[in-house]
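Annex B, item 7. Sequence and structure tokens for protein A, then protein B.
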Amino acid sequence: MNVRPNQDAQIVFVEMVNRRSRVVTFGLLLVVLLLLVESTFEQTQARLSSPAEFTALLELRSSLGLRSKEWPIKSDPCWFWRGVQCRNGSVVGIDISGFRRTRLGSRNPEFAVDALANLTLLESFNASMFLLPGSIPDWFGERLSSLKVLDLRSCSIIGPIPSSLGNLSNLNALFLSYNNLTGIIPSSLGQLSHLSVLDLSQNRFTGSIPSSFGSFRNLSVLNISVNFLSDTIPPGIGNISSLQYLNLSGNSLSSSIPAQLGDLDNLVELDLSFNSLSGSLPADLRGLKNLQKMAIRKNSLAGSLPGNLFPALSQLQLVVLSQNAFTGNLPDVLWTMPNLSFLDVSGNNFTGVLPNFSFNGNATASVFNLSQNMFYGGLPSLPRRFSFIDMSQNYFEGRVRDYAPSNASFGMNCLQNVSNQRTLEVCASFYAEKGLPFDNFGQPNSTQPTTNDTSGKSNKKWIILAGVLGGLGLILFLVLVLVLFLCCWRKGGTSQRGNGVGPVPAGGSPPPPGMPINFSSLGEAFTYQQILQATGDFSDANFIKHGHSGDLYWGILEGGVRVVIKRIDLSSIKKETYLLELDFFSKVSHTRFVPLLGQCLENDNEKFLVYKYMPNGDLSNSLFRKINLEDDGLQSLDWITRLKIAIGAAEALSHLHHECNPPLVHSLLKLGLEPRPCLLAEIRNSDAGGCYL
């Protein structure tokens, strides 16, 4: 009778034993796996085995004045020194980017890296944003034969690039931007067959682009922008089939754009802006089938745009052709490109009647600048999805339609219901030259025959009567306004005296939501993608602080420019706050204000303002002596420096209070702006301790 329960108990016991054996087996396997991983890691990150390399690292630590915090002297470099990477007991990588010197090391910084010559297996050396004043030694290309990555951005390096760098046959990436390098670019760099990134931007190179650059076979990024290069663009660059990013802007390159650039079928971004290029835009560029960004602003290009160019460039997101001498009509395909979100053709001689804009693709927001051309006829239909559109300084006629976007500019045209338009004579003359009828601001044509004298006299009487009545009404209105103004002024003066607050001018009140802002004076219009790329998708590592009107992030733009980006969330603050800041920078310009480099207004719920980066932070963090002798930065401010800071702040405030018309009082309560800290620029002999608001 009890056989069945015993059998069940045995079955349960067997299952428990099997389960425990499986757990034990899994645990043993996990332990073995961990031991294998640990042994592999130890083999990769073993202790430094070479006494000569340890001595070299100690010498490098001493010559550069590195702090014990990063490189503790009594610890194994492979395990405990920040930025040191080892493999099989040898040093293969050193990264001191952004390190801070000790106080002693900051007194006389030099390009003192001779100890690197003894690290023969070194593959990567990154010293970006670490002060290394001096020249790159010739032995770099002779003793560091294993080097794959050399990053010396923003190191204050001077002198020429040694031609010996062309011997680094294993080099994959060379970053030398934001320095003071001079001379010509050595043609020997064209021998670097494995090179994939070459960034020489923001220096003082002269001469021409070496023709040997056409020999690159693996190069994907070539940036030589903002130098003093001249001559022509080498046609051989079209042979770099792997090239994805080409930036030659900010030089003095001349002649025409070589048609061979159209062979770069992998190119994603092309920037030839701010040069002296002439001729026409070659139709051969239609071969750039993967191109997303084309910027050729501020050149001397002329002629009409090729009709077969843009239909082949279906991936385009950004097109900037401003400040050239292009003529003719804009291709109709521009208005239907599926991904185009930024178009700037301002400052040319384009003409014709614009078609109605339509968007059938993925472009979620659009910024179009068609200003300073010779477009005419009626305004096209303008979808509200435009973030901003500038159609000013053309010859559009008629009326602005009610459904036109509010963030649009129509000044200096021939429109009827918009202020700040061209004169009647100028508009009539323009349309007469083209043999076209002109709407004449809705007034009867002066050449139209009159009716009989009786009706003319009757009309004249009515005009005189209307003028008299209108004049009386205007006088009464002005008297009423004056009385109201005096009453308000007296009430405001009493209130201010009672609270002990000084008067705030009318210019200091926030602008109404619909106020016109001169966007052309607010710097460059950045795309949202550029903002994301600059800040690493608003990474926590880029976060600076929470501001009154938005969060602040530091970032690096595509050209290597360091900036500070204010992220304004319109769901948490009033729209008038950021409009006020835009209005402020559109009207106020002074050397003692932190420059506003641009803005991004694409998104409805978020706006972004881009400012110049001030490397020494704000004054509140630099007023007092730092006790730690190994810390870097502004250790102590002497009285001369403090005086210059005070003068800089006074200059900025004096400009606001006395030189602006109307005067601006910077007050949190009255203006709605956050109080601006005193920011410190780089200390130079001519501007030590400069203060910027």
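Protein B:
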Amino acid sequence: MGFHSKLVQVIKVGVILSAIMAAAITAFPIALPNCPDSCGNVKIPSPFGTTEGCYLNDTAVDGDYFINCTSNAYGQPQQMIWNINVISISMEGEIDIQMYNSIDCYDEYGTPLSNINPWLRVPGFRVSVTKNKFMAVGCDTYAYLNGILNGQPFSVGCLSVYNNTRSIVNGTCAGIGCCQIDFPRDLTGVNFKAYSFKNHTQVWKFNPCSFAFIIQEDKFNFSSDYLISLRSNETLPMALDWGDCTCIDLNPNNGSGYRCNCMVGYGGNPYLKDGCQGTGIGLIVMLVCCSWLYLIVKQRKLIKLKEKLFKQNGENSIETAKIFTIEELKKATNKKAKIVDQSQIEQFVNKIVVLSQINHRYVVKLLGCCLEKSIPLLVYEFIPNGTLFEYIHNEKKVSTISWETCIRIVTEIAKALSYLHSATSIPIIHRDVKSSNILLDSNYTAKVSNFGALRLVPLDQTEVATMVQGTIGYLDPEYLHTSQLTEKSDVYSFEVVLIELLTRRKARIDVLEKHIATEGNVEQLKEVANLVKKCLRLKREDRPTMKEVATELEGLRKTKKHSWINVNSNFEETEHLLAKTSDSSKYDVRNKSTEVYDKSTEGPCDVGLR
């Protein structure tokens, strides 16, 4: 069965289960059998009811839960409790009603016109202290809220007096045109009244009335328009808490009172016999199916993205390298890719084509690539013994490498670079030769690695102009100044590595790395130092090629001399390189800009190694 068919089936199952769950939840009975469960668009759950025998009615709370379902003057259903309009009743223990507004109005001469004083005395119901505020609106106004608290009379009030509207800020009820207060929990039998200090004679033009009311806080946002318009609002929304059975404490923030509640995993109306029905298994099934559906859709999107990136990153251009998946790489390494822009993709493909053709024992082998990420990745063979840099600068490790091993390692590096320069189909300049880019396998065989900066040289050219790239300290100074890159730039970097290996930053023969100085043949050391000096000449045309360097080093290993080496004629020069300080001026390639300075306190082998 195809992926599309499976996806369609999972979607169907998810939709069906969702519909079943929704139907089951809405099918829970909320009213007693044979009792209406709504009046108009308002649901009427038990213990409320609209007819005799359908609501809670005992001597303690006689008639409190009766909803009078009538019609208004327009023939529309109207839900009334204690002659107050009902907005909604929730199973969470809240009933929203339209409570009356206390209005105290006067004419321009200060004569009283109307006065409404609301009250609410209903056993078993309490004004919600978490949902409501007591507010007074007016600029010549004070108001009181009265009630019974713990069996004792209780009063609280606020006032607002101001003779103009210039300082009134809409949306703020802070004493100018509007004041508000909280009231204590467990307050019952409430009544409230608005008053005026001077019968609004000084503010009558913009505020002829005082107003006081209890209102749901989220339903009221003060505006200066209310100084007049609230006169037409006879009622405003208020929330009450209901419930008086010994089940689960309803809301400790609202004070005393209890409400029955179904246990976790069950739904329905706990006031009915067998009113709580299990929903846990069905809900779990639905969540599992939804999660499965989400994962499948996500996987599908991931596959499409991988296909897009695969094509974008050169799907048909990689014929000689193995294609790895991102999952395979996650298991093999924790290395992260560096960000590249889209313009580098073509260059990346060209490099893979060339690198995949390299087959040399001293060059780390390219195994393949991964094209499934927005940043394409190269995959090389694993080399277990770390880098040459780690052995050069680690006291414990460097003692494990003999002079014979050192000369073999540098010979192998030279052969690898010579191969890249002259034996590949397109000449390759590494451009970042340094000890940390030389890997050592289990037999301490050198492997040139990290071709992130390599540059391909067209067959009809010997040098290319390019943006300077590499590591300061190893960079060819002429390349650094002119941006003209040739194979001799790698020669320079290689000899810096050779100095680093021989001296570990020391320049004189008496402070060569201890076991090399005692173990190595002094004449060999001098000849290697002489070779280093030739390779570090500032003018690239005066340097030997990498092939000549490799041949010379191989000859040293076999105690033979190449024809262009004249040890005797260079003996003085070699002694100067290894043992003497220099008073001449030299180029310091440790800085990004080139400067001439006196290095009288340093040996000439300390080139860019700090």
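Comment on protein B: Residues 245-258, 313-319, 506-511, 560-610 have pLDDT under 50 and may be disordered.
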